[in-house]
Amino acid sequence: RGIVSIDSYLQNQPDFINISTDDFGGGYQMGKYLISQGHTKIAMLADNDVTVDHHRWMGLMQAMTEEGLSLSEQDHFIFSSSEPVRELQMEQFLPKLRDYTALFVASDFYALEVSSFLQSKGIRVPEDISVVGYDDYIYPGICEVGITTYEVDLAEMARCAVGVLLEKMSGRGQNHGIHIVEGHLVIKDSVRRIEA
């Protein structure tokens, strides 16, 4: 009895087990990677600041803080999930975005959109601004520049969910909680190394 879910965020619910990707760890790893490539002016773009995107933002913030770099809410751009509104917001954000050397975008879908927007304004990716995403859901060839990303290990999440379900069905499993599944960085072509 109960529910096993993948990437849901109903916390502290009885009979509910969530199998989740490591959003905080992924944001942290992406931050560390960008810093290792010489980036100190990093912004994050997302369509919200709750659940997964908030954890990714907090991971980036932790990586920046550990390196003694500043990151504030002014570096966190929230745009609409509505494409027409998002396009207008990107126009408004553009003058500020030009101040950054790297943009961490909360998903590959949005990273692709941001990259295309920048290129339409004559801003080269990664030569002028590096762009990274999250998920590794974009198939090669869709974008001119391969987007560096954090891969969500869907196969491992599915294996974990099946294992938890089998344990619950046998009466041995836990009744609630979260299982975190780590992913890993996938380095592609969208990050420029900045020499000191």
Considering the chains and any ligands shown, give keywords for the structure:
196 residues; alpha/beta; four-stranded parallel β-sheet; three-stranded parallel β-sheet; 5 helices; 9 strands; 38% helix; elongated
Structural class of the helix and strand makeup?
alpha/beta
The quaternary structure here is: single chain
Distance between the termini: 57 Å
Evaluate the radius of gyration.
18 Å
Mean pLDDT across the residues is 91
- How is the biggest beta sheet arranged? 4 strands, parallel
DSSP helix count? 5
Work out the strand percent: 15-25%
Q: pLDDT below 50 for ≥5 consecutive residues: which ranges?
A: none
Short description:
The chain has 5 helices and 9 strands. With 196 residues, the protein is α/β, with parallel strands linked by helices.
What order do the helices and strands come in, and which of them pair?
Elements: E1 3-6, E2 16-21, H1 23-36, E3 42-46, H2 51-66, E4 76-78, H3 83-97, E5 102-105, H4 108-120, E6 130-132, E7 149-151, H5 154-170, E8 177-181, E9 184-186
Parallel strand pairs: 1-2, 2-8, 3-4, 3-5, 5-6
Antiparallel strand pairs: 7-9
Helix pairs in contact: 1-2
Word description of this protein:
The chain has 196 residues and is of the alpha/beta class. It is 38% helix and 18% strand. It has helices at residues 23-36, 51-66, 83-97, 108-120, 154-170, and strands at 3-6, 16-21, 42-46, 76-78, 102-105, 130-132, 149-151, 177-181, 184-186. The strands form three sheets. Strands 4-3-5-6 form a four-stranded parallel beta sheet. A three-stranded parallel beta sheet has the order 1-2-8, with helices on one face. The chain has a two-stranded antiparallel ribbon with strand order 7-9. Helix 1 (23-36) runs parallel beside helix 2 (51-66). The protein is elongated and about 60 Å long. The N and C termini lie far apart (57 Å).
